[in-house]
Amino acid sequence: MDIMLVLSTLFTGKNMLAVVMGTLSGIIVGGIPGLTATMAVALLIPVTFSLSPITGLILMGGVYCGAMYGGSIPAILLHTPGTPAAAATALDGYPLSRQGHGGLALRVSVVASFVGGTFSALLLLIVAQPLAEISLKFGPAEYFLLALMGLAGIVSLSEDNLIKGLISGFLGLGLAVVGTDVISGQLRYTMGVKDLYDGISFMPALIGMFSITQMLELTGYDRIVKEGIDITSIKREKMPPGMGKFISVGTLTGTMVGVLPGEGATIAAFVSYNIAKQISDRKEDFGKGNPQGIAAAEAGNNGCVGGSLIPLLTLGIPGNSVAAALLGGLLIHGLIPGPDLFTQHAHITYGFILSLFLANIVFWIVGMLFAPYFSRISLTPSAILIPAVSTFAIVGAYAMNNSIFDIWVMLIFALLGLLLSKTGFSTSAVVLGMILGPIAEKGFAQALIISGGSIMIFFQSSIARILWGLIAVLLIPPVINIVRRKLKNK
Amino acid sequence: MTRKILDIIILTGLTLVAVLLYVSTAQYPQSVQHSTASYVRFLSASLAMLAVIQIGISVKKIAEQEKVFFYTNRRRFFTLLALLVLYVVVIFFLGFMLATMFFLPSTMYAMGYRNKKIIVISSIGLLLFLELIFVMFLRVPLPRGYFF
After folding, report:
1. How far apart are CA A89 and CA A466, in angstroms?
2. pLDDT one-digit tens code per residue, A2-41
3. Which positions 151-210 of A are in contact with B (Cβ < 8 Å)?
4. Which residues of A touch B46 (CB under 8 A)?
5. Do A220 and B34 touch (CB under 8 A)?
6. Which chain B residues touch A445 with a CB distance below 8 Å?
7. Cα separation of A286 and B86, whole Å?
8. Residue to substitute from B39, B47, B67, interface A, most A β-carbons within 10 A
9. pLDDT at A432
10. Is B89 contained in some domain?
11. Residue B146 lies in a domain
């Protein structure tokens, strides 16, 4: 590989403009609920046809990086995750905003996103091939266990009331079976409603449970920041110490989960959040505004960016839906994933990978510069904020499938979310169940078909045994905590 | 409503749904009885079991008088709920832009904001932003109404 050729291909005025424009557009797209990076990248494909291959890819890569970070901004400030992956960020980000520390939460989020994104791009640059080969060793049983690992987070999310948390998770998993049976193709529980043939869309459900529920809650307050809190504290706040450990956990988890095709940034964020909670010495603050939770979740979902591109560029297997849209962008320029991409078209491929570092730098600068200004949103009067956020929520719910039905789904889930949260159930666990349900069901069913009905398939491979070990590590400490607390209370 | 009664209603409902879900798996094709049907049976059995355990805990642990408050400001809460439902109905007939033109200022006013200049400017600004981002930049269609 000729490094000078790569650098001269990358560092042109047009390409630098593409990095900046792509990343800024990504931040906007990611920041608006319902608009996804997949949608933006897919829309860019025809646009990039008129550009050179490297410029087109850089533009799409910038959108991907920017959107993954952008999703955290409304999650922190408005309890409205711009992307499903930012739902884990909202758990601690929004309580911090309500305490008048929105600026601090945004700062932690941008630093963690930057580290996660940069590290995963570095791995993509140096060890793409061996990591891609590991991902091929994952079969249906391992995917089921990975989904189970994500679901272990439910226990962590509901330490205050474990049984209600588990009920919420199972409710989410149950809602996810509505639609078409992945194995037989038979329709289940659709009640003849065509809009339910593909299942209940989780984005409208997520927007309803997180965003609209919060807007209904906000009707009782004049603004997001709680009464009596010193609003001057919202100004520049320094990074809290000890974030490195949690950012590292999120970064590694995100990159590894991102490499696995079909897994997504949402799982990475929740698993990272869960691990961070287990290793934290401030466990009791999680869910109440602990920056460690934001650091892990954001490093986790941004770590997925580089990870998901590893199987895409080396094997032609997209790690997630955004990578699938990027595959379209590669193919339209005649770039076939595989060894040729790293030999014949090395200057384009490596130029593209290096541009991801630049995209991370762009959003880091934007985030650091604008965090104190973004955080002013939490001082906006609720009377202005409520209709504005509700409008975005409605457009976001509609935009996923261009369906008015989805807007009704959003409103129904808003009421369900309110009812559940007020009675001690966990809406985060419901959403997690809905997101992981299809992955868990598909993996479970396919594995049992392969094994002829024997559950031993879930224990056979060494990867499966490692995953069981990790699940145990994630489940046992919170369960011990709960038992200890119960005994102490007695 | 008291927390205890609400808990019992929700959990009984969930138990009922879980039982129906379990029973429904008998109608799945024979080919998936040992795959997806088993998965759904596992889910429903777990949900029912947990709900029954929680009913026991709620009956025993929750104080008789403990109440659940869904709102802090009753008038604003129900007004927003009504406006949201009305907004979706109006979108269905008049389309997104016209419906939003009514929804934004009326909700701001209903939520207690009285500065008319800000209401008008922020409503127009938001509509322009939505048009710019969704329609012109991303070409994402906004909801169209029955008439417009």
Report:
1. 27
2. 788 888 888 899 999 999 999 998 998 888 876 777 777 8
3. 163-164, 166-167, 170-171, 173-174, 177, 181-184, 186, 188-189
4. 166, 170
5. no
6. 32, 35-36, 38-39
7. 38
8. B39
9. 84
10. yes
11. no
Q: Residue A300 in contact with residue A34, Cβ under 8 Å? A: no
Among A56-70, A339-353, B111-125, B133-147, the range scoring the smallest mean pLDDT is B133-147
3-state secondary structure A146-191: HHHHHHHHHHHHCCCCHHHHHHHHHHHHHHCCCEECCCCCCEECCC
CB contact under 8 A, A422 and B10: no
C-alpha to C-alpha distances, B83 to A223, A338, A411, nearest whole angstrom: 20, 54, 12
Structure confidence by residue, pLDDT tens digits, A179-223: 999 888 999 999 999 999 999 988 899 889 989 998 999 999 888
Share of chain B above pLDDT 90, in %: 69
* Cβ separation A453–B34 shorter than 8 A: yes
Report the pLDDT value the prediction gives residue A334, as an integer from 0 to 100.
Answer: 84
Structural domain including B43 reads 3-60
- Stretches where chain A sits below pLDDT 50 are 232
Question: Which of B60, B85, B104 is the C-terminal boundary of a domain?
Answer: B60
Query: Do B49 and B79 fall within a single domain?
Result: no
Q: Tell me if B66 is assigned to some domain.
A: no
Contact yes or no for A448 and B34 at CB 8 A: yes
* ipTM score for this prediction: 0.94
Q: For residue A78, what are the domain limits?
A: 3-489
Q: Do B54 and A181 touch (CB under 8 A)?
A: no
Q: Looking at the complex, report in whole angstroms how far the Cα of residue B39 sits from the nearest Cα belonging to chain A.
A: 7
Residues B52 and B90 in one domain: no
Contacts with B118 (C-beta within 8 Å, 6 or more apart), sequence order? A384
Verify that B78 and B131 share a domain, yes or no: yes
The whole-number pLDDT of residue A235 equals: 57
Q: How high is the pLDDT of residue B90? A: 95
> For residue A163, which residues of chain B lie inside 8 Å, CB to CB?
50, 53-54, 57
| Whether B79 and B131 share a structural domain | yes
pLDDT at A321: 76
CA A46/CA A24 separation, integer angstroms: 19
**B30 found inside a domain:** yes
**How many domains, in total, are found in chain A?**
1
Number of domains present in the structure of chain B: 2
Cβ contacts of residue B56 below 8 Å, gap of 6+?
Answer: none
* Chain B residues inside the 8 Å CB shell of A32: 133
